[in-house]
């Protein structure tokens, strides 16, 4: 990357959806970018678009985060420059009864949404602490707070992200480095299609740009745990306070209404 004095934001999952919108938003705010995705063609298109519109430097890093050592390879691609902001956004879902889904898909999801998050955060955090500034923006989900039948491993990875973010918030107090976890609800991205979920569209969801703008504002304000939207806050409240014997059937009813859960 260039020797620009602009701060650098490292964004994973930046070729589409919320990640692409976050890359655009941080570029608009004057950040150089390192953007990561396994889809090289789409990633280059995003990089070219952002550079032509904003003039910031964008480094596309083609990397499958489910591969062994992916986090280390991403950091090596930075060529020694230390990110000022790490945005852990990459992720995908696997939908279906746990007894019937492919374990290889679920283990790949764990590597992307747990292993790579740990590797990248471990790699960039010491530099931020040394400089006394910087931040980590984790993109979670309302499922951070809830067990979800038919998405058991996905919800579990998001529960990890909540606990991990809260733990880092406690560790980093007084260092000048802050952590923000943003938890959106349904968002209009390719996520559900990739997960094999045939959503009826009865719940429209938020636009990725809207989520990215809210996430950027929360991060800039150094907020800690942020749930986006009134409906999402109600959902999280129910998940946290209702007994499992009540919440789990409710969760299945919600997903049946959306057309993404079996009617058994």
Which spans of ≥5 residues are poorly predicted at pLDDT below 50? none
CATH topology-level name: Rossmann fold
Count of alpha and pi helical runs: 9
Distance between the termini: 54 Å
Return the structural class.
Answer: alpha/beta
Level of helix content? 40-55%
Query: What percentage of the residues does DSSP assign to strands (E)?
Result: 5-15%
Written description of the protein model:
There is one protein chain. By secondary structure, this protein is an alpha/beta fold. The chain has helices spanning 17-28, 40-54, 70-77, 103-131, 152-171, 191-194, 208-220, 230-241, 244-258; strands at residues 8-12, 32-37, 58-62, 85-88, 134-139, 177-183, 225-227. It has one domain: NAD(P)-binding Rossmann-like Domain (Rossmann fold, 3-Layer(aba) Sandwich), CATH 3.40.50.720. The chain has nine helices and seven strands, in the order βαβαβαβαβαβααβαα. The protein has a seven-stranded parallel sheet, sandwiched between helices. Helix 2 (40-54) links the parallel strand 2 and strand 3. Helix 3 crosses helix 4 and helix 4 (103-131) packs parallel to helix 5 (152-171). The termini are far apart. The mean pLDDT is 89.
